Amino acid sequence: MMKIALIGAGTMGAGIAQIAAEAGYDVNLMDIKDEYVEKGIGTIKRFIGRKLEKEKITKEQHDDILGRINGTTEIKDAVEGVQMVIEAAPEKMDIKKELFKKMGELCEKNVILSSNTSTLSITEIASSTRYPERVVGTHFFNPVPLMRLVEVVKGDKTEAAIVKKAADFCEGAGKTPIIVKDVPGFIVNRFLCLLYNEGAYQVQDQIASNEDIDKGLKLGANHPMGILELMDVVGIDIVYYALQSLWESTKEERYKPCPLLREMLDSNRLGRKTGEGFYTY
Description:
Rossmann fold; N-(1-d-carboxylethyl)-l-norvaline Dehydrogenase, domain 2; 2 domains; eight-stranded mixed β-sheet; 8 strands; 49% helix
């Protein structure tokens, strides 16, 4: 069974680590501080604990899943002996390129180097490593344990065999992969970012109450969740940087972030994770 490393123990990194461990993979979960690693593992323990309480898994399965996850703050230790590294760091190109440079230096030549980026260019990320042909995008969706899709993104130099191995990993973890060209925002976020921006502008322009804006999409377009509710789950910071990235890469005004999102970011109203976003929690 493949052993993987997750670089970044936040919401996405912890979620990917969880589904990998549930599928039987051994996982090294790494972040830059012990407290971040502990928080990520704590999140996984809560998810798995709820499954045990609901009798969806046995106590033995619960213990086995958690036993497959190892936390560390050292990237060298995280990537040792793994067959695949998945980067789930903040959505900033300079951070990702620095990580991939290190990953290329530390990993064996046959290791898959993957990014969970939602909007950034896989080709540009790959340019920072000695092995661009081994770099692929695996864009999971939030919350990872519940969302079925993964966008597998092929960079300009990504080998077809690497794309297949990444897609096979996703299927092994219970997800449905789709193969996507390396374009800004890939498939899903090109749609979602337009909805995010429009939702924020409707709030800013006081077109309706937050609740009614969300009811409009849920009842009028059969969306399972309102767009404001969704942004609060995803995180206003993630939404803002995704839009910013799309705007910078496409120069299309439709992706220019609504000023309200910047205001919410600056005041730390990031959604569920800070207790306040478009709603209060």
